[in-house]
Specification:
mainly alpha; single chain; 72 residues
Length: 72
Amino acid sequence: MLQPEVIAEVSDTVFFANANAAADAHVLPEVLADPGIYLDAATLARLFPDKTLGGKALRQRTRAWTKVKSGI
């Protein structure tokens, strides 16, 4: 999966972007040109990462999710 040719073939098959920049040369042009798969620069500029939660908030979220999953 780390080889550009291999991950490019996966992207071509499932129509999903990959994070290997070297694979772009091997991805089908119609997949690379699809803005629903590979976002344009204007859209990428508007994105931002989630902020990291502190330990206490992370424990609370984990406990809440465990309750949801277990049905308690």
